[in-house]
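Hello,

Our lab assistant flagged a job as stuck in the queue for most of the afternoon. It eventually completed. Since we weren't sure the result was trustworthy after the delay, we are filing this so someone can double-check. Below is the sequence as submitted and the structure that was eventually returned. Let us know if re-running is recommended.
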Amino acid sequence: MSLYAVGLNHTTAPVSIRERLTFGPDIVVAALRSLCERPGVSEAVILSTCNRTEVYCSVQEDQADTVRHWMAEFHGLVVNDIAPYLYHHEGDAAVNHLLSVASGLDSLVLGEPQILGQVKAAFQTATDAGHTGKTLKRLFQHAFNTAKQVRTDTAIGDSPVSVAFAAVSLAHQIFSDISQQTALLIGAGETIELAARHLHQHGVCRIIVANRTVSRARDLASEFDGYAIGLTELSAHLPEADIVIASTASPLPVLGKGAVERALKQRRHRPIFMVDIAVPRDIEPEVGELRDVYLYTVDDLEEVIQENLQSRQEAAEQAREIIEFQVAEFRAWLNSLDAVDLIQNYRANAEAIRDEVLLKAQRMLDAGKDPADVLAFLANTLTNKLLHTPSTQLRLAGSSGQHELLEAANTLFQLGQD
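-- returned structure --
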């Protein structure tokens, strides 16, 4: 079996492609089951966020291309249509990629911490569904430990940079003083919570949180003296919003062009700043065509966040050194698995010989044999039986000129022979 990672992210595919290959919470378990039913696939984890969709799995070496075809077929696409946007890694490269992702080195915002929580959630979902085994469990735990070391031993997370932070920074550029503005946050996940926190710290006048589950919206809004509504109430409250930040897991847009047009009329065309962080998009792309609307997607935020990355570049180089070392550590563990079955078989064989000889010795004692004679029999017979096969094979190796095998035996048994 071989480790394999295939996916696409913000650097290889635009939003229009990424949103066609997402795995929402409602389908990810079914997707894992579907993938693991494919020949040669034994374990799998699916990581799907607004900036990436990736599949990590353990597959037979001759079945590696199965994952790409499955990903296309599951979404009703042709593999050739998505192939230009996909990357794939095997072995050490797959390990390196996961460790880099978990440590925030492959994110839109270098070093952002949210991705680690998303990787952990993806792994937990796959584990709960019974689709992770010994290899992926060890790999992902190794990734979590590596990410923790990177965060502890480098300054990768010192600057407060995230997609949410970038969105709020952009709002500051459009509204020089956001203390007079009302922000409407659509969704109640981690990104929206971060956006709410940044807005609150920057003194935004009022926060409205809209979510499908109103109780969750209420919990979040209460932290920032905000107001909670359901998604069905969006149109009624949209005219109040100067800033709109959306990040839900909805497969379809929750805010359309018509609703925004009506809101602009009620606002007498005062501008609205909108950031759509979700993939698939929460706000219809046509909204960006409206006058007095400034609509940005996650891809548009890249220029904004570049200013905040310089201090993290040196830390990123240190992090990559840590990751290279940890890749080698994981490879050593993976290689050790090759010896596990051999060791188990060797021990089982030795234990079987022991039990056989011990049984004969016990029978001799029961028959009244001298205990000293029985001990001598036990020691001699056990020694002869344990050494018979190795001695025979070493003689054959010597007679046939297999010097490499003799050298290996010398190293294995620590005989110290030149």
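-- support follow-up --
The delay was a queue issue, not a problem with the job. The result is valid. The two ends are 38 Å apart (CA to CA). Residues 2-159+329-335 form a domain with the Beta Polymerase; domain 2 fold (CATH 3.30.460.30).
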